[in-house]
């Protein structure tokens, strides 16, 4: 299994052969009975080979030994079920029978069948939490863990592909750790990832695949930590992650993707930590909503090459106010009717993007961005969803505190409601507005009542 190193706070992969052994030094491998398609077998009966035996050929005449590591090599191409009728202590499991195999591990029906996962004896901490997880692996098949998992250990998903589905009402306390981007992590209830205090960790994954296979959106309260540069990809149904997110203590880049088809992922817990870029992306028209009092200081990026069909909704005031900059990289930013005072946050443009004032009467205040790169020939579309569309009197975008907040070239890349490109101007107070629309922003109109000097402070793109 991967172990969190106390020196670098990173999980270091062991060689593959060692990886398939139980992490707990006292555990031994046990191999399960030869199976038939659609067969049902008992974990608690004499369906295992000898403790510590090498190979997987049996004889399968032994009972389960508490604390061992279960290996399922048989049943390639089959679907079968193993029932648990007792509380079985174990140190993880490995399903290695090919991509076409499906193994269901169920409570026998009496409510007494469950697993107690023992803690990994090699422990270290990050941000005050120790992961003591054991490995749960597949060789490309599907492992449906329907029986509850408890104990002071935890569950670690590792490489191998396939699906590991945590479908029990689980109470384990040692944490859940994703260390691979090749295995789908299925969940279908709020307790899939253990006790409420058990942390979810993402360690160095390009995109750990989090698949809500439940019938509706779920609320996951577990706190989350990322370790190093890492990513997470939500698919399936929507989900609310209401626990806090600690994005590491350094400058690692973090990627959060919603690839669910038209689904919503809500991140309501406060996100803290990294000074590296935090990128929000998606390819299937999904939405990511930020609702926490986020304090990470790295730049925020909306969209990424190939995954620009994302709406990032700021579901509470100032959710990204601590971010050093916002780069529009192909997605849509929605202020959701709130006033976001981001006076230390710059605004950049690296791909044609949209700021959509969906709820109206919203305001985004950015720092002077005249020195920030805007890639030429791109478009920043300012719009309001629905029939009203952009309105100078209710939709506000302030960049800096004066007419130099954006350059003439940057203003030339702004359009309104998919048209009027070239009409963008900036007031003496730093407000961007459509100069072809009457009236101008109310802030400008009020200032004009105080004197005509403001007129000379308006910057507009020179065509």
* Beta strand count: 43
- Determine the structural class based on helices, strands and strand pairing: mainly beta
DSSP strand content: 35-45%
Q: What is the overall pLDDT average?
A: 89
Which sheet architecture does the biggest sheet show?
21 strands, parallel
> Compute the gyration radius: what is it?
27 Å
- Counting structural domains, the number is 3
Specify the helix fraction band. Answer: under 10%
Tally of DSSP helical segments: 3
Shape: elongated
Distance between the termini: 62 Å
Q: Which residues sit in consecutive blocks of at least 5 with pLDDT less than 50?
A: 1-22, 442-457, 459-463
Supply database-style keywords:
single chain; 463 residues; mainly beta; 21-stranded parallel β-sheet; 12-stranded parallel β-sheet; disordered C terminus
Word description of this protein:
There is one protein chain. The chain is mainly β and 463 residues long. It has 3 domains: 1-238; 244-367, no CATH class; 381-463, no CATH class. 4% of the residues lie in helices and 39% in strands. It contains 3 helices and 43 strands. The strands form 5 sheets. The chain has a 21-stranded parallel beta sheet that branches. Strands 3, 5, 7, 9, 12, 14, 15, 17, 19, 22, 25 and 28 form a 12-stranded parallel beta sheet that branches. A 6-stranded mixed beta sheet has the order 34-37-39-42-41-43, with no helix packed on it. The longest helix has 9 residues, at 442-450. The protein is elongated. Mean pLDDT is 89; it is low at 1-22, 442-457 and 459-463.
């Amino acid at each position: 299994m991967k172990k969190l190193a106390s020196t670098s706070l990173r999980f270091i992969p062991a060689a593959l052969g060692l990886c398939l052994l139980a992490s707990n030094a006292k555990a031994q491998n046990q191999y399960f009975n030869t199976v038939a398609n659609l067969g049902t077998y008992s974990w608690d009966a004499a369906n295992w080979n000898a403790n510590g035996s090498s190979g997987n050929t049996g004889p399968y005449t032994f009972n389960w030994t508490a604390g061992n590591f279960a290996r399922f090599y048989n049943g390639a191409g089959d679907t079968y079920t193993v029932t648990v009728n007792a509380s079985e202590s174990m140190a993880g499991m490995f399903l290695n029978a090919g991509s076409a195999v499906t193994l269901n591990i169920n409570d026998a029906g009496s409510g007494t069948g469950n697993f107690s996962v023992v803690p990994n004896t090699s422990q270290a901490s990050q941000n005050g939490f120790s992961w003591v997880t054991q490995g749960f692996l597949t060789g490309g098949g599907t492992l449906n863990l329907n029986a509850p998992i408890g104990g002071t250990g935890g569950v670690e998903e590792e490489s191998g592909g396939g699906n590991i589905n945590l479908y029990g009402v689980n109470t384990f306390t040692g944490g859940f750790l994703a260390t691979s981007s090749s295995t789908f992590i299925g969940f279908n209830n709020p307790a899939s990832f253990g006790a409420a205090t058990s942390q979810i960790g993402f360690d160095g994954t390009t995109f750990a695949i989090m698949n809500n296979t439940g019938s509706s959106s779920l609320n996951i309260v577990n706190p989350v930590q990322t370790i190093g540069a890492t990513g997470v990809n939500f698919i399936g149904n929507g989900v609310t992650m209401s626990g806090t997110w600690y994005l590491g203590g350094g400058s690692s880049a973090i990627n959060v993707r919603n690839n669910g088809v038209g689904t919503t992922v809500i991140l309501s817990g406060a996100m803290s930590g990294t000074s590296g870029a935090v990128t929000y992306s998606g390819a299937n028209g999904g939405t990511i909503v930020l609702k926490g009092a986020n304090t990470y200081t790295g730049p925020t990026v909306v969209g990424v090459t190939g995954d620009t069909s994302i709406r990032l909704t700021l579901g509470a005031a100032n959710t990204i106010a601590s971010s050093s900059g916002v780069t529009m990289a192909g997605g849509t930013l929605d202020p959701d009717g709130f006033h976001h005072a981001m006076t230390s946050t710059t605004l950049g443009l690296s791909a044609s993007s949209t700021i959509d004032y969906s709820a109206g009467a919203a305001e985004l205040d950015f720092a002077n961005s005249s020195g920030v790169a805007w890639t030429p020939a791109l478009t920043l579309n300012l719009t309001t969803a629905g029939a009203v569309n952009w309105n100078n009197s209710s939709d506000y975008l302030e960049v800096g505190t004066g007419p130099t907040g954006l350059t003439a070239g940057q203003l030339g890349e702004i359009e309104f409601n998919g048209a009027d490109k070239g009409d963008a101007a900036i007031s003496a107070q730093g407000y961007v507005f459509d100069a072809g629309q009457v009236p101008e922003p109310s802030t400008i109109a009020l200032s004009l009542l105080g004197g005509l000097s403001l007129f000379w402070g308006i910057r507009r793109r020179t065509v």
